[in-house]
């Protein structure tokens, strides 16, 4: 069996707030790539719940966080459609993402 690794390194300030986030992906050729935010979700089958790690640096601008969340919502619709084949629900998620974009003022 082949293994690969994706890692995220977080440098914290004295108050334990992220100042620098970098990530590495062996197979993707990514090494110490800086990012301002990351959201990771994993499925806990025993507890039947999603576990999350949401991190962002103090320098992450609010307007970029809104765009980040919008793009995550769009990708959730795409992932849902690929995983379930339920096009109607995927379209609903995409519509919700567009409503979010309008309400958060990143789209008019």
Structure description:
- This protein is an alpha+beta fold and 108 residues long.
- The protein has 2 helices and 5 strands.
- The protein has helices spanning 62-84, 87-103, and strands at 6-12, 18-25, 30-35, 37-44, 49-56.
- A 3-stranded antiparallel β-sheet has the order 1-2-3, with no helix packed on it. Strands 4-5 form a two-stranded antiparallel sheet.
- β1 (6-12) and β2 form a beta hairpin.
- α1 runs antiparallel to α2 (87-103).
- The protein is globular and about 45 Å long.
- The N and C termini lie far apart (49 Å).
Q: Which properties best describe this structure?
A:
single chain; 37% helix; globular; 2 helices; two-stranded antiparallel sheet; alpha+beta; 5 strands; three-stranded antiparallel beta sheet; 108 residues; Motility-assoc_prot_GldC
Strand order of the largest sheet: 1-2-3
Evaluate the radius of gyration.
17 Å
Strand content: 25-35%
Number of strands: 5
Distance between the termini: 49 Å
Backbone shape: globular
Structural class: alpha+beta
Number of helices: 2
Mean pLDDT, all residues: 96
In terms of per-residue confidence, which ranges show pLDDT below 50 for 5 or more consecutive residues? none
């Amino acid at each position: 069996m082949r293994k690969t690794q994706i890692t995220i390194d977080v440098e914290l300030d004295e108050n334990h707030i992220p100042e620098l986030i970098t990530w590495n992906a062996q197979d993707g050729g990514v090494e110490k790539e800086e990012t301002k935010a990351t959201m990771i979700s994993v499925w806990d089958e025993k507890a039947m719940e999603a576990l999350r790690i949401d991190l962002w640096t103090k320098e992450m601008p609010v307007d970029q966080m809104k765009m980040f969340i919008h793009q995550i919502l769009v990708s959730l619709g795409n992932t849902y459609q690929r995983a379930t084949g339920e096009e109607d629900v995927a379209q609903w998620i995409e519509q919700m993402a567009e409503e979010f974009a309008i309400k958060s003022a990143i789209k008019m």
